[in-house]
Structures are given as C-alpha cells and as structure tokens.
Amino acid sequence: MADYDVIVIGGGPGGYVCAIRCAQLGLKTACVEGRDSLGGTCLNVGCIPSKALLHATHSLHEAEHNFAAMGLTGAAPKVDWKQMLAYKDDVIGQNTKGIEFLFKKNKVDWLKGWGSIPAAGQVKVGDTVHNARNIVIATGSAPSSLPGVEIDEKVVVTSTGALSLPKIPRKLVVIGAGVIGLEMGSVYARLGAEVTVVEYLDSITPGMDAEVQRTFQRILKKQGLDFIMGAAVQGVETLKTKAKVSYKLRKDDSAHQIDADVVLVATGRKPYTDGLGLEGLGLETLPRGQIKTDAHWATSVKGIYAIGDAIEGPMLAHKAEDEGMAVAEVIAGKHGHVNYGVIPGVIYTTPEVASVGVTEQQLKEEGRAYKTGKFSFMGNGRAKAVFQGEGFVKILADKQTDRILGAHIIGPSAGELIHEICVAMEFGASAQDLALTCHAHPTYSEAVREAALACGDGAIHA
Ligand code: NAI
Fold it and tell me: What class, spelled out in words, does domain 4-143+270-338 have in CATH?
C-alpha cells in the first residue's frame, strides 16, 4: 500500500496548485516544501512581494507627480522604508497562510522539509521515506549566476535580496533589462535611487514585440532609468559597502566601469533540481538543466512527472499553475491540457506591459500574411483622466481569416486587458468578434476594441 497517490515536491504556484487539484480529484496527496511557508519563490520572494513594492512606490510617484495637478496639495509623503518592507512582509504572510488554509481545507498533507527521490515511487523528507504511486517535481528555478559575479545578497543581490535591502541605495546598477531588472529598477528609481541598467542586447525585454520594446524603454528613460545597451558585464568587484561593475561595449570592445551601492543581478533563472537525486534515478535532463518531459509532463522515469520552471517553456507562475492542474488531471485519468500558444506575459511597471501569442517579428520571419490593428491610449478618455495616455494596444490578425494571432499592450492595466484577448484566442475569435462586442465606456478596455476595429474598417477615436 502506498502512503500517497501523489506526492508533489515543491510548494510554489505549480506545486501547490497541482496538490490542491489532485486532492479535489479524490487522490490522497502530500506536498513537500522546505521553506517555512508555502507559495515558493512567487509568494515569498518574487511576484507577490514585488507587486507590493511596486504598488507602494507607484502611489508615491502619483503623490509626487500628479496630485498637485488634481488639486491635491501639501507635501508629498515621506518614505518610511522599514514600514514599506513590513507592509510587503504582511502581504506575503497573508498569501502564504492562505495556501496553508487551502491545504487544510482540501486535506493536502504538507510534508515539511526538503524532498529527494531515492527510487521511483519513493520520496524522502528528512529521515522518513514516503511511498507514492505518482511523484510530481515542481521545484521551480533559482537565479542563474554570472561568471565573475559573486552574490552576497547585501551589495550584490538577486531579486531575493533586492526585495529586502536594509536601506534604499543611492546608486543601483541592474544587470539585465529583463522583467526582474525593470520591475525592481522601477521600484528603486521611484524611491529616489539613481538606477542604471546594463544590458547585453541592443533592446530591452528580449523576445517582446519590438515596437513595445522601444516605447517601453523611452517611457522608462523619462521616469529616470538610465540604460547602457549592448554591454556585456565582465565582473563585479565588491568593496565592503560598494561595488564596481565592469563591462565591455559590444560595438567596439571598449572596457568601462560603473560604481554602485547595490548591484542587482537579473540575468535570468535556471531550473532548480539540486538534491533531488535525479542522476541516481537516470532521469533525463536537457542541456540547459530542465527536466525532459513528454506532452503529458511524464519524465523518462515511470510514475515521475515534472512541471513549471523545472521543465521547458516560459518561467512564469501561471504557466506552472496550468501545468499543475493539467498533470493532476492526467494522473487522475482525465485529459489535462495546456494551450502553450495562449500564455500571457505581463510586466508590472507603470505603464504595465502585456503580451500574448506571436509577435510581429515572428510573423515576418515565418512569412505569414497578417494585418495589424493599433490604437493609442491617447485616444482613450479614461486613460487620459489618470495621466496614463502613453502606450498602445496592438492586435495581430491573420490577413485572410481575421483570426487573432497575438496582442501586445503597453498602457494602464495592460496586465488585466490582455485576458480579454486570451479568451478570444482560446475561442479562435476573429478581430471582428472583438470589434463587434460592446465595451463599456469609459474603460481602458475600449482601447482593445478600437485596436480590433483598426484590424478592419478603422478605429473611431484615432
Ligand atoms: P530575463 O531573461 O527576463 O532577462 C535577463 C536579461 O539579462 C536579458 O535581457 C539578457 O540579455 C541580459 N543579460 C544576460 N547576461 C548579461 C550580461 N552578462 N550582461 C548584461 N546583460 C545580460 O531574466 P530575469 O529578468 O532575471 O527574469 C527571470 C525569469 O523570471 C524570467 O523568465 C521572467 O519571465 C521571470 N519573471 C517574471 C515576472 C513576471 O511575469 N512579471 C517577474 C519576474 C520574473
């Protein structure tokens, strides 16, 4: 008799969602988590705490820049950094305790400790070996290292350290203009730090629509972020409470240095599978360390599945959650499915940036016939009323069939707006379907409809 039908290793968004769904489907389930709280990187040191700091500092920005224009006078609030961190920690606590409650409600056992897999069908936590008919690896990812850069989480930090700095740095150097670098860079720029982003490529946010990249970088520059583009970081020298970042410009190979009080290394993440004992199991991995899985998240070892950042695909909490639900269904004998063509990506800066489906560059490379409908938030009354007229919605549709192939938004609440287009894409909708749908006025969503109209006979307010 196995102790459990399913043991999920990892209590992040992939793992905890998987465990809850397994239990809901009638499977006896446990989830192994070694942190003191559930929720993984996302809830403890990632998505959620960064959103708290983004919200707090956005509020400060509003007070400093827009209150007076609205007739709200008086001195802008002073920053109590300790309290801001306490607020962030309180948000984390509320969310992680919420998962604990959901585990109890759904009768998922939390096996506290770090798990390993001594053999197929077995999970070891501490000194105890538990038997499980199925094992799901959902161990997530860790920041990837950069040669010549030693992380101490004090002066040279990853996103984890950046969320709990003892004080606001005067000079912050961010290595990497990806999602983490720009979100955390925005936080500290709003708090008054001098922020310089050093990026290897010639454009920010790799893989994103080129027009969005350009607009986004222009807006961030206006907000005070400085960019050194086409620069390969060679190393970071730490001198007690300061650091020197050395980089070479790719265009002429010239060497440069820049000083910082704090350096944030945000050059990507790598799958985290340390200590699981994958080698002993003969479980196949890919060259970049991800666990190899088939279309049903089964690994090369029978009865062991893997999901989330530990396998291929975008390292996003919601992608892991979807895989967690789907693999639970597969294990329960149902038909779990994830539509990898409709996974949105969101950057929670101000303005927000969101995308789904293909980019215009991909369509060009594939030689596909497409049309573009674009609408600027300058034509959206609601956006202008809240000082957010910058940015646009861009919808890409098949030239012949009008089917929506992708969408790219930079503007207010882009991270919410994108889901209307995700739903439309799931239903195989055409741009005209969106254009014919009544949208409430005044809403930001009208910009989505206008972009859909622009795929046809034209937007009204353009
Ligand atoms: P990223 O992959 O988004 O960006 C890393 C950047 O670093 C790239 O632009 C790359 O060209 C640059 N880079 C690499 N080596 C460099 C060097 N030596 N010198 C200068 N630049 C260099 O990685 P990031 O921002 O660390 O995020 C990690 C993962 O976490 C991503 O997969 C991201 O999607 C996910 N994440 C998602 C969030 C969201 O959905 N809002 C928030 C935070 C993270």
Answer: alpha beta
Alpha carbon distance 401, 357 (integer Å)? 16
User: HSE of 404 in the Cβ direction (CA atoms, 13 Å)?
Assistant: 34
Closest to 12 in 3D by CA, of 139, 100, 109, 192:
139
What is the whole-number distance in angstroms between the Cα of residue 177 and the centre of ligand 1?
Answer: 7
Among protein residues, the one with the nearest Cα to ligand 1's atom 38 is 179
CATH tag, 156-267 = 3.50.50.60
Picking from 191, 318, 179, 339, the residue whose alpha carbon sits closest to that of residue 262 is 191
In this structure, the chain runs to a length of 462
Per-residue model confidence as pLDDT tens digits over 14-33: 999 999 999 999 999 999 99
CA separation for the pair 141, 268 (Å, rounded): 10
Catalytic residue among 65, 337, 441, 461: 441
Look at the block and give the residue holding tokens 């936080």.
187
Same fold? 4-143+270-338, 156-267: yes
Q: How many other C-beta atoms can be found within 10 angstroms of the C-beta atom of residue 188?
A: 24
- Judged on CB neighbours under 10 Å (0-12, 13-18, 19+), 21 is buried
Tokens of 79: 């920053």
For residue 228 and ligand 1, the question of a CB distance below 6 A is answered with no
Q: Which atom of ligand 1 is nearest to the CA of 204?
A: 9
pLDDT in tens, 268-285: 999 999 999 999 999 999
Architecture of the 342-454 domain: 2-Layer Sandwich (3.30)
Q: What is the pTM of this model?
A: 0.97
What radius of gyration, in Å, describes the C-alpha atoms of the chain? 23
